């Protein structure tokens, strides 16, 4: 019952669609813009880096907050915290408030790491950022960073945490399956992060 409660809380917290609500506040339905994906990258591409970053941070908080609360009240273990974060990522990807549409789980993964092992957030961005700046493929950076983190956590945090991190990676890989196909076919859309942060918000 304890695990079920944690899973339900994680899912419903994750389902709050900040990457939909932030653009909507500015009069933009993000599902009808760009790729139509309800995620921070689509917000960043179409509304500028600062709004995209705000959406990503808020999406990360959806996993961060319930984990912090559960640790304070219930003294949950690391693996239980990873479970809550994983179900928040499921909620983010398949939001009950958006007819089970959503983002690609990366922000919630980072939010989970921030709550449990914040040092590894630096490791994530240490892998993700150079890849994205050099290739301009956010999807490639995200998938590779999560894969490498899965391997690292197996050796540094144990099997339980490593397996949950692997679950995050598999979820993100599945959500990025069209991007992976586009990368293989040479059709993936590039994202210039520096230009995105210089870009003024589109008025659509």
Automatic annotation (TrEMBL):
Pathway assignment: Lipid metabolism; phospholipid metabolism
Chain ranges passing through the membrane: 6-28, 49-69, 81-98, 105-131, 143-174
Enzyme class: transferase
Major location category of this protein: membrane
InterPro entries documented for this protein: G3P_acylTferase_PlsY (IPR003811)
Compartments in which it is found: Cell membrane
GO MF, any single term: acyl-phosphate glycerol-3-phosphate acyltransferase activity
Keywords, alphabetical: Acyltransferase, Cell membrane, Lipid biosynthesis, Lipid metabolism, Membrane, Phospholipid biosynthesis, Phospholipid metabolism, Transferase, Transmembrane, Transmembrane helix
Any matching Pfam family: G3P_acyltransf
GO CC term, one of those recorded: plasma membrane
SMART domains: G3P_acyltransf
Membrane topology: Multi-pass membrane protein
GO BP term, pick one: phospholipid biosynthetic process
EC number in record: 2.3.1.275
Catalytic reactions on record: an acyl phosphate + sn-glycerol 3-phosphate = a 1-acyl-sn-glycero-3-phosphate + phosphate
Family to which the UniProt record says this protein belongs: Belongs to the PlsY family.
Entry function: Catalyzes the transfer of an acyl group from acyl-phosphate (acyl-PO(4)) to glycerol-3-phosphate (G3P) to form lysophosphatidic acid (LPA). This enzyme utilizes acyl-phosphate as fatty acyl donor, but not acyl-CoA or acyl-ACP.
Quaternary structure note: Probably interacts with PlsX.
HAMAP family for the chain: PlsY
Family annotation (PANTHER family): GLYCEROL-3-PHOSPHATE ACYLTRANSFERASE-RELATED (PTHR30309:SF0), INNER MEMBRANE PROTEIN YGIH (PTHR30309)
The protein's name in its UniProt record: Glycerol-3-phosphate acyltransferase
Name of the gene: plsY
